[in-house]
Automatic annotation (TrEMBL):
Residue spans of biased composition, Polar residues class: 21-40
Transmembrane segments: none
GO MF terms held by the record: 3'-5' DNA helicase activity; ATP binding; DNA binding; hydrolase activity
Origin: domain of life: Eukaryota
The protein's name in its UniProt record: F-box DNA helicase 1
Pfam families for this protein: F-box-like, UvrD-helicase, UvrD_C
Lineage, opening ranks: Eukaryota, Metazoa, Chordata, Craniata, Vertebrata
Length: 1044
């Protein structure tokens, strides 16, 4: 409380008895229990009862000089367990348990400042414990060393410690009068106060290196190397110190293919027998992890007690006792580090690893969170290296650990309550890197964003943080631009590239009635010179014009002629140089007449939307008044679009997913790969789905496209094995359900039509929504093709009329009717028309009834429909709670071990990248539930994921002492001789089910190689009967193998 002396206010701390008395008084109680609700003026006698906020003002000594920082007198050698307090004149009395009671004496005299006051040698002990740049004091040690009495926050020195000059100086502090303030803000005034402190006096450089290392340990390795280490020599020294996060840094260096790091890990694997030629490589890795270097302060017995609570501990213990009996024990239990390594391997998924991390974190047995992550980084580094050296293990082990580490690094900060502010949207480290980038006019920034990673949200926040800049957001699709206009702030103008070209040039052709959607070979064929006509030549000329419109060239030339095309016999043909010149000449004549501003009735001379966009590009447009251009879906932009935008004298930010490029047939190029950049960022964490769906998407990219970046999700639940039997049965039986939640996604329109027929056949009242609208699906054209298929006499008798002018033209005898239309579709390689013809031939007489039914059952809004149907092309950018992937995508015929045994090349590398992109886009539309196909499961096996899980043998066998292997025709029995076994989880597809069951060790060895030796010794497994499984192959593959 405060006492008056010579007009000055003096402070002293109260004894326990005085505090007790104050809490009973009317004036004292509120001031102590609710200090910030009491408003006291300067002359109030109880003013001193309120706590004061530090002013951060440095004291001045008599000669006017400012007080120096403590670091100016003494270097920091360790992390202090508590801040040194001001000294007091105390008397000590020995009490029970050697605790010290404090008696205070108050003296009124001027202060004598002592910078060593409160500093004891205990504070500088245990420097050798900073193995990873961190230090922690045990709770019981802290309580024993710094126990005080009463309610004073000042503590007496520990017994046996030495004080300066052999005693503790009495101190008085002389304060100036100032207004009592509550805590100024959430930063405790470190950033400055409005009245008493205009500028903060502290700086992050004032922190000791041990504290800085604790802060830096929370950052991703990418930030440590690319940003923190470049700030100054001191920070670089902390980051590069060998004992600071060694495994985390080693993983990052290996991922970047740093030569020294790769050699270091390779040598480590070879020295410890973790090589492909060693059957026990997985066990050797577990044995190596038993030597994990940890702080001397970590008690291994405490770690083991913590790990014992995990549900997989019993399996890990059984495996160690059976397969590593010579390993040193801890308090009668297994080595805790090996047990933890096995738990990471045995984990069913991300949840098991998160549970392990939570247990370690709660118990505090590893002292700090970064020591937990270091163990995980060690395992991730070894598993990644094992995969890179072609050791046959599943990529799921590494993926689960990496996933958890990513979540740990991107965990949202704790929510603050009662601050009156709106809830902040948490951004990941990757998003924050983008937001921190201050773009300049000469910058070309690329943002590689996986599916659902919040690229639009990132752009919105980027624009919001820079209200002084004027942005242009450019998209290809009008609906996307409209939606973006609702999301972006007012300093962003949202347009499509074609709308800008239309405003500049296109409207002129619209006014002349000389505008069409696309150029068709059918109209081109009638204007070609004699001798160079026909639908095949018309197709080549049409493609030549389209290629020119997509390019940056100023005139049409032979280079725009396609390199290959199918001739009238259906065989691929490469044009000669003379033919190239002829095709280019014909294309030039048509293009010249298309661009003339003269009205014409000849449809072939009407300009297309891409045509007037090309004319605009040739004029070298200048977009003024924009500081930055956002280019969305950059992977699908044509060269002509990129030329227009990249030529502008402002900053450019290209955003997109290179693995969602599915429009190369329109001339799109992947600008995210071809355009040079000044800065590159990645967004890899999806907010759409959880770990199971993310794993499927990441594995498709890794196996089929060799993508190194890893797609991860959030903490949401999700399923991919058809566990929800009720929903699957509902879909199969087309029963009514909650609208807008289930989507059936297909590769092509033919399958969409087939699924719509299937659903409405089973349930005539089933309501469907076709993505893109039923009016744009082409049902009227399908009906017209069916009418064309009917004999001319029948059409007249029944009054059937063809409404589509293009199809109606084939009624003429010289075009050959239905057969002529079919020939035209083949010669021009019109895949959409070929699909419609196949539908008509498949359903034939049912077509009129089916067209009417689909029109009647179609809903305009998806939330009003029981099921949503669509192609991947139309569904791009959308998301659904449940996604069913149909079986018309690219296929892998069987699982990995059968491919190897039968010497079948799945043809993954030879397949068009667009096909894998389509499959990736399909699976990443799901938010909660994904129903796979057998082919997608086969792709997962190429990464080692057979949905095999570990279990105690006694649990699997239940009451049966013996059980046969679940593999067909395998006679091997499962016995309790091996305490651990593996069983396959059941997987349900739309058209079939893979039953689960326990597998014998030799069947496990066929699928996942050395993992089987966690179950039994190699000599035992190799002595067992080896069963060659007979897989169910697609009919075409099976017939080919039979012939061979």
């Amino acid at each position: 409380m405060e006492t008056a002396s010579k007009g000055k206010a003096k402070r002293r701390h109260l004894s326990a008895a005085e505090c007790s008395g104050l809490t009973q008084s009317l004036t004292g109680s509120p001031a102590i229990t609710q200090p910030f609700t009491v408003s006291l003026h300067n002359k109030d006698p109880n003013k001193g009862l309120q706590p004061r906020s530090p002013t951060k003002r440095r004291r001045r000594v008599a000669d006017g000089r400012q007080q120096g920082l403590i670091t100016g007198f003494f270097a920091s050698a360790g992390v202090l367990s508590s801040s040194p307090q001001k000294g007091k004149n105390v008397k000590t009395e020995p009490g029970p348990n050697s605790h010290i009671a404090v008696k205070e004496e108050v003296e009124e005299r001027h202060v004598v400042m002592d910078f060593m006051e409160g500093i004891t040698e205990e504070m500088f002990k245990d420097d050798e414990e900073f193995e990873t740049g961190k230090f922690s004091v045990k709770k019981e040690d802290n309580e024993r060393d710094w126990t005080g009495a009463g309610c004073s926050s000042w503590a007496s020195p520990p017994p046996g410690s030495s004080s300066i000059n052999g005693h503790t100086e009495k101190e008085e502090e002389q304060d100036e009068e100032y207004d009592v303030q509550s805590l100024p803000d959430a930063h405790y005034g470190l950033l400055g106060l409005n009245r008493t402190l205009l500028e903060p006096q502290g700086h992050i450089q004032d922190l000791p290196e041990e504290v800085l290392s604790v802060i830096f340990a929370q950052l991703p390795a990418d930030d440590l190397y690319r940003h923190v280490s470049l700030v100054c020599q001191r920070w670089r020294g902390i980051v590069m110190e060998s004992q600071f996060l060694p495994w985390k840094k080693l993983y990052y260096r290996c991922e970047k293919q740093e030569e020294e790091a790769v050699k270091e890990v390779k040598a480590l694997l070879e020295d410890n027998g973790i090589v492909r030629t060693d059957d026990l490589c997985v066990l050797n890795m577990v044995r190596y992890m038993s030597q994990f270097k940890h702080s001397k302060r970590v008690n291994e017995a405490d770690v083991l007690r913590c790990v014992k609570g995990h549900r997989l501990y019993a399996q890990a213990e059984a495996c160690i006792k059976h397969r590593l009996p010579d390993m040193e024990t801890i308090d009668g239990g297994p080595n805790p580090w090996s047990a933890m390594a096995l738990i990471l391997i045995l984990a069913d998924g991300v949840r098991d690893i998160l549970d392990l991390v939570a247990r370690l974190r709660t118990s505090g047995c590893l002292l700090t969170l970064d020591r937990i992550s270091e163990f995980l980084w060690a395992m991730a580094t070894l598993l990644l290296a094992m995969r890179n050296t072609n050791i046959t293990i599943t990529n799921r082990w590494h993926y689960n650990i990496f996933y958890v580490l990513h979540l740990m690094e991107n965990a949202p900060p704790p929510l603050s309550h009662g601050d009156g502010r709106e809830k902040q949207i948490h951004v990941t480290h990757e998003q924050q890197q983008v937001l921190n980038h201050d773009i300049q006019r000469d910058h070309v920034v690329k943002i590689m964003a996986f599916a659902g990673t919040g690229k639009t949200t990132t752009l919105v926040k980027y624009a919001q943080q820079r209200p002084h800049l004027h942005f242009l957001y450019v998209s290809f699709n009008k609906s996307v631009a409209v939606q973006a206009n609702r999301s972006f702030p007012s300093n962003v103008e949202c347009r499509t590239i074609h709308s800008m070209a239309y405003k500049a040039i296109g409207h002129r052709y619209r006014n002349l009635g000389k505008l069409c959607s696309n150029l068709k070979p059918f109209t081109v064929a009638w204007v070609l010179p004699e001798g160079r006509g026909g639908f095949v030549n018309a197709k080549v000329v049409t493609q030549t014009i389209n290629n020119f419109c997509s390019s940056t060239d100023e005139c049409i030339g032979p280079q725009h002629v396609p390199d290959r095309y199918k001739n009238t016999n259906g065989r691929e043909e490469c044009p000669t140089e003379s033919k190239r010149k002829d095709f280019a000449y014909d294309a030039q004549n048509i293009w010249k007449k298309m661009t003339e501003l003269k009205p014409t009735k000849e449809a072939v001379h009407h300009i297309t939307h891409d045509g007037y966009l090309k004319l605009w590009q040739l004029q070298k447009p200048v977009l003024k008044n924009y500081d930055v251009i956002f280019i969305d879906e950059a992977q699908d932009c044509t060269p002509v679009i990129m030329d227009i935008l990249l030529s502008q004298s402002c900053g450019k930010i290209l955003v997109g997913d290179p693995h969602q490029q599915i429009y190369t047939f329109r001339g799109a190029v992947n600008a995210l790969h071809t355009v040079p950049h000044t800065h590159l960022y990645y967004l890899t964490q999806s907010f759409r789905f959880g770990c199971e769906i993310a794993y499927v998407g990441a594995t498709i990219l890794n196996v089929c496209k060799k993508v190194k970046k890893i797609l991860v999700g959030g903490r949401q639940d999700g399923t991919v094995r058809g566990e929800d039997n009720e929903t699957l049965d509902t879909i199969k039986q087309a029963r009514t359900q909650v609208g807008g939640t289930v989507a059936i996604l297909c590769r092509c329109n033919v399958t969409v039509f087939g699924e719509a027929v299937r659903l409405t056949d089973i349930n005539p009242n089933c309501k469907i929504h076709i993505v893109g609208g039923v009016e744009n699906f082409g049902l009227k054209q399908i009906l017209d093709i069916w009418i064309l298929m009917q004999p001319e006499q029948s059409r007249r008798n029944e009054g059937l009329q063809i409404k589509d002018p293009f199809i109606r033209s084939f009624c003429k005898e010289k075009l050959g009717g239905y057969a002529g239309l079919k020939k035209y579709a083949t010669h021009t390689e019109d895949h959409e028309l070929v699909g419609k013809l196949s539908l008509v031939e498949k359903y034939n007489k049912r077509i009129p009834e089916l067209v009417d039914r689909l029109y009647s059952r179609a809903q305009s809004k998806p939330n009003c429909a029981d099921y949503i149907l669509g192609t991947v092309h139309k569904s791009k950018g959308l998301e659904f709670d449940t996604v069913v992937v149909t079986d018309d995508f690219i296929k892998v015929p069987c699982s990995r071990h059968n491919l190897h045994r039968m010497n079948i090349n799945p043809g993954i590398r030879q397949a068009d990248a667009d096909e894998w992109n389509l499959l990736y886009v399909a699976v990443t539309r799901a938010k909660r539930t994904l129903y796979l196909t057998k082919s997608v499961s086969n792709i997962l096996t190429l990464a080692g994921e057979y949905f095999l899980r570990f279990e105690l043998t006694c649990t699997l066998l239940n009451k049966d002492q013996y059980r046969r292997c679940s593999t067909r025709e395998c006679p091997n029995l499962i016995t309790v001789e091996s305490p651990l076994s593996m069983h396959k989880l059941p997987v349900r597809y739309m058209d079939s089910t893979e039953e689960g069951g326990v597998l014998c060790a030799t069947c496990v060895e066929q699928r996942v190689g050395p993992v089987s030796f966690l179950l039994s010794p190699p000599e035992t497994i190799k002595f067992m009967h080896y069963t060659e499984e007979l897989p169910e192959l697609p009919i075409n593959i099976a017939m080919l193998l039979a012939l061979l």
